[in-house]
Design a protein that fits this description.
The complex is a heterotetramer of chains A (about 110), B (about 100), C (about 550) and D (about 160).
Chain B: H1 3-25, H2 41-54, H3 59-67, H4 69-89
Helix pairs in contact in B: 2-3, 3-4
Chain C: H1 7-28, H2 30-57, E1 63-66, H3 71-81, E2 89-92, H4 94-117, H5 124-143, H6 147-165, H7 172-203, H8 208-214, H9 219-235, H10 244-251, H11 254-278, E3 289-290, E4 293-294, H12 297-321, H13 326-353, H14 360-396, H15 412-425, H16 432-447, H17 449-474, H18 490-508, H19 510-526, H20 528-536
Antiparallel strand pairs in C: 1-2, 3-4
Helix pairs in contact in C: 1-2, 1-5, 2-4, 2-5, 4-5, 4-11, 4-14, 4-18, 4-19, 5-6, 5-11, 6-7, 6-11, 7-9, 7-10, 8-20, 9-11, 10-13, 11-14, 12-13, 12-17, 13-14, 13-16, 14-15, 14-16, 14-18, 14-19, 15-17, 15-18, 16-17, 16-18
Chain D: H1 6-28, H2 37-55, H3 57-63, H4 66-89, H5 126-151, H6 155-160
Helix pairs in contact in D: 1-2, 2-3, 2-5, 4-5
The chains are: A mainly alpha (about 110), B mainly alpha (about 100), C mainly alpha (about 550), D mainly alpha (about 160).
Chain lengths: ~110, ~100, ~550, ~160
């Protein structure tokens, strides 16, 4: 039971992220919420691939013994790069929105140009 | 505490209770405990064959660039897309 | 090397290669770049048609392509030696091929249209790059047989679309629309990734066919189903989550909106794939009884979707009535059209798994054909209307209905195209919209008469909306500022004429389309055993 | 963003080559040790971003334009997809096939398995793909950071420099 702490961390990260997206009004905080959810999902993926007592799946200078699963690590790598790309685009939108409306509050943006 | 924050907390509490409950009680049926994945044919196959089939010592790299290389093409494309998007958004508007 | 053996890979690889080359070609010459992009889009379209022809003539109706290894060897080692499937593969069945035809036709017309529509703007190198990337992403989503690969292509599509929605960077609202779209789609994509992780945890597989074969419909699978439907429904604008669509469609350049319709439909394809193929085995599982109703998972899912469909139609139609902006109005009608498709597919689920109506087979087949046909028709009709709206914007620099009027005098051809789009979108007899909507009315009447009455009434309301628009924009007194309006350039008229031609052809010969395109797709959708057995051998 | 103090600039100049070499090492040994094209590319791009922070975006923009970075990135992406397309032409004639390794492979130097011996010239097409992706990531990430930093500079500042 206590070994399942990673799963609880995943739940906590996703919930904090959801909270930030749904109930914060600052655009930057919404973006932070999205990255938190993303970290949660990445942690979940990585957690799935762990076998008890295993080493990294790399044969160079390997100490031997069982290796952890390589596919979740590859998926996480892909997902991290995608996260960076999305983050860059969202932040550039925010820069532009700030230029137009001089505010980051969701309630005050979206009016006439 | 205003009404909105109260609603927020109530909503998140419900989800949290539901998820914690599901993690605690559903382990034996569906999800395996941390560190003991039981179904791992695919990953064991990769670990056993990475050196002979792809020639790479690094199992993760062999997945990223060989077994699931097409995903990596997509991933590189995502980055390319983001760069094109950012440059498009910050372009000069007048010729 | 025989090119015919590699079509599934080339369909995605060619637009990707084109996208990577476009910035380099753009350094040479603008005209050369435009020709190059049109060539790449046309080549993609031709490859898709060749692939579709292969799929429709194949005895099983499925073409598989494994990346990085010989396809036949891989499939043989899975079926005979029991090796796990580690590589990514494309699995193209009738439904994928049908969707891919839509997904390659829209960008082709859009790039032809952009030649003069976007001429005055800067940053066109990146614009064309992103259009090609959207095409590649869309086609990848439609053809792939791997869940994680689907996620990656979904992200390519949504990032490219978001950047293009915000193309008019000097307008604050366009930036807000782009931001909304990227937030919605990245949250949706993360939900999908979570669902993929849940599948991976249980079955150690990422391939759709392998998961569909092993799926148990346990507690975690139900969570994954909810996550997938919520995320893909969000991306294909089902009612409570439709808020991004009018903003995005309304603020983007018309040519981008035209391709955006394709990406929305690609997400809808994802919903169908998840419901019918991934969970196909579990839909008919026996559930508890409620009176005479047997609450199978398929019936419950259908009941949920039918509620969403009705709300979507209502929201779309009634919000369209009160819009004063032409593009936003058409966008709300697009929401309503998505509701019609959803109505058809939920009718399929209810009639197949509810077990109430006597002639289940006929009803479900009719509904399925109507829904699939309507996917194509929606892309064409709404797309044509957006192209016309773009042409009006090009000529007058105005989209507000209050400031437009009397355009029919100076823009004769545009007026004719708008009339064609109007009749088609509201389902009037000679056009294609009628051919698909009549199938939907017929089948939903068998499920529940009230549903079809609502559908017909809303369709009439859509006609009312457009007649009002037609009157205020094209007829009536001419505004002073619009005295010198000229007809749009020929190349824009050409692209609108292509779409109108297809609309009229579909309207006059619906049987040809239904028999040759729709039937294989419907067959592929209802029979997921072939989808599984073509990968895993006979089960 | 204008430049920072002289201390920061000097430290940056000292650290930059080491960060660069470490990043290139990670890229080159992607198939042997933890890391690869993405990770190494991110390290090099961070080194470039450090220069950007220390010297200011206006100075950096004068040295290198985002146009050039965009071309470099296109070249990296083209290299990657060409390696995939070459699989169609050589060896087993399959898209994304490792056309250098294996019994039908055409490779002269990369055509042998690593099997635990650390050697850069192994693993077929993987090191080449690592280099292509590395180039792409360096150019891409640096272009994003550069464009975003330059966009937040006030117009007055650009004119005064």
């Amino acid at each position: 039971m206590i070994y399942n702490i990673p799963y609880f961390a995943v739940i906590a990260l996703i919930l904090i992220g959801l909270y930030a997206i749904l109930f914060r009004r600052n655009l930057i905080k919404i973006v932070i919420g999205i990255t938190l959810i993303e970290s949660g999902v990445n942690l979940f993926l990585i957690t799935l691939g762990y076998r008890e007592g295993s080493t990294a799946p790399i044969y160079t200078l390997s100490p031997g013994g069982i290796m952890s699963m390589p596919v979740p690590q590859a998926l996480t790598l892909t997902s991290i790069v995608i996260g960076v790309a999305v983050l860059a685009l969202m932040l550039s939108f925010i820069i532009h929105i700030y230029r137009h409306y001089k505010t980051l509050d969701v309630r005050k943006i979206g009016g006439d140009d | 505490m205003n009404k909105r924050d109260f609603l927020a907390l109530a909503f998140l509490t419900v989800i949290a209770v539901f998820l914690v409950f599901s993690v605690v009680f559903m382990f034996d049926e569906d999800l395996h405990p941390f560190g003991e994945p039981t179904e791992n044919d695919m990953d064991q196959y990769i670990i056993d064959n990475t050196q002979t089939e792809t020639g790479a010592d690094n199992g993760v790299t062999s997945v990223v660039f060989d077994y699931r290389g097409f995903d990596t093409l997509g991933e590189a494309t995502v980055l390319f897309t983001a760069v094109a998007g950012v440059i498009l958004v910050f372009r000069r508007l007048k010729k | 090397m025989n090119i015919m053996d590699h079509l599934p890979a080339l369909v995605v690889a060619v637009p990707l290669l084109g996208a990577f080359l476009t910035p380099l070609v753009g350094k040479v010459n603008d005209k050369l770049r435009n020709i190059f992009v049109i060539f790449i889009a046309g080549l993609t379209c031709a490859l898709v048609f060749l692939l579709a022809n292969q799929v429709f003539t194949d005895p099983d109706g499925i073409i598989t392509y494994v990346f990085g290894a010989d396809t036949e060897d891989t499939l043989k080692s899975i079926a005979e030696q029991g090796n796990p499937l580690v590589r990514i593969l494309f699995e193209v069945d009738g439904l994928s091929a049908f969707m891919a035809i839509i997904g390659s036709l829209l960008p082709l017309v859009a790039v032809i249209y952009s030649w003069s529509f976007m001429k005055e703007h800067t940053g066109l190198d990146k614009y064309y790059t992103l259009i090609l990337l959207m095409t590649a992403g869309m086609l990848g989503m439609m053809l792939t047989g791997d869940l994680f690969n689907f996620f990656v292509f979904l992200e390519i599509t949504s990032i490219a679309s978001a950047a293009l929605i915000a193309f008019y960077t000097d307008k604050g609202k366009a930036m807000v629309a782009g931001f909304k779209y990227i937030v919605i789609s990245s949250i949706g994509a993360l939900f999908i990734l979570l669902a993929i992780a849940i599948f991976y945890a249980q079955y150690d597989a990422l391939n759709i066919a392998v998961i569909a074969n092993n799926i148990q419909y346990g507690f975690l699978d139900k969570i994954a189903l909810v996550l997938l439907i919520a995320a893909l429904g969000m991306k294909s604008a089902f009612a409570p989550m439709h808020m991004w669509l009018p903003d995005a469609y309304g603020r983007a350049p018309a040519s981008v909106t035209f391709v955006l319709i394709g990406t929305t439909l690609a997400s809808l394809y994802g919903v169908l794939r998840v419901c019918f193929t991934l969970y196909g085995k579990n839909l008919a599982a026996t559930g508890s009884n409620l009176g005479s109703l047997n609450l199978t998972p398929g019936f419950l899912l259908g009941a949920l979707l039918v509620v969403l469909a009705i709300i979507t139609i209502f929201v779309g139609v009634f919000m369209a009535l009160k819009q004063v902006d032409l593009k936003r109005m058409i966008a709300y009608v697009a929401v309503a059209e998505i509701g019609y498709m959803l109505l058809a597919f939920s009718a399929v689920l209810i009639s197949l798994y509810g077990g109430t109506s006597p002639n289940t087979e006929v009803v479900s087949q009719t509904a399925l054909k109507g829904g699939l046909f309507h996917i194509f028709n929606d892309a064409l009709d709404i797309g044509l209307l957006f192209l016309v709206a773009g042409a009006i914007y090009y000529a007058t620099k105005e989209t507000s209905l209050n400031k437009l009027g009397g355009l029919a005098r100076n823009m004769k051809y545009t007026t004719i195209f708008f009339l064609i789009g109007l009749f088609a979108a509201s389902g009037m007899p000679p056009m294609n919209g009628f051919a698909s909507k009549i199938l939907i009315y017929e089948s939903t009447y068998q499920v529940n008469p009230i549903l079809s009455v609502i559908a017909i009434l809303c369709s009439i309301l859509i006609l009312a909306v457009f007649v009002k628009v037609f009157h205020s924009v094209f007829l009536g007194p001419e505004h002073v500022s619009l005295k010198n309006v000229k007809e749009v350039p020929k190349i824009m008229l050409l692209s609108m004429a292509i779409i109108s031609g297809i609309i009229i052809f579909f309207g006059l010969f619906p049987d040809v389309v239904v028999n040759n395109l729709i039937s294989p797709a419907a067959e592929a959708l209802t029979n997921n055993k072939i989808y599984i057995s073509s990968i895993l051998g006979v089960i | 963003m204008s430049g920072m103090s002289r201390i920061v600039k000097t430290m940056t100049s000292t650290v930059f080559p080491f960060a660069m070499i470490f990043g290139l090492y990670v890229i080159a040994h992607g198939h042997l040790t933890p890391g690869g094209g993405f990770q190494g590319g991110a390290v090099v791009a961070s080194a470039c971003a450090m220069v950007l922070v220390a010297y200011g975006s206006v100075w950096t923009m004068r040295k290198i334009k985002e146009k050039h970075l965009s071309v470099l990135e296109s070249l990296g992406a083209l290299g990657f997809i060409s390696l995939a397309f070459l699989g169609l032409i050589f060896a087993d004639k399959i898209f994304f096939d490792d056309f250098i390794m294996g019994p039908n492979g055409i490779g002269m130097i990369f055509n042998n398995a690593a099997l635990g011996e650390s050697d850069i010239f192994t693993a077929g097409v993987i090191p080449l793909m690592n280099f292509a992706v590395g180039l792409k990531v360096i150019a891409g990430l640096f272009a994003i950071v550069l464009v975003m930093a330059y966009a937040t500079v006030k117009v007055k500042e650009v004119k005064s420099k």
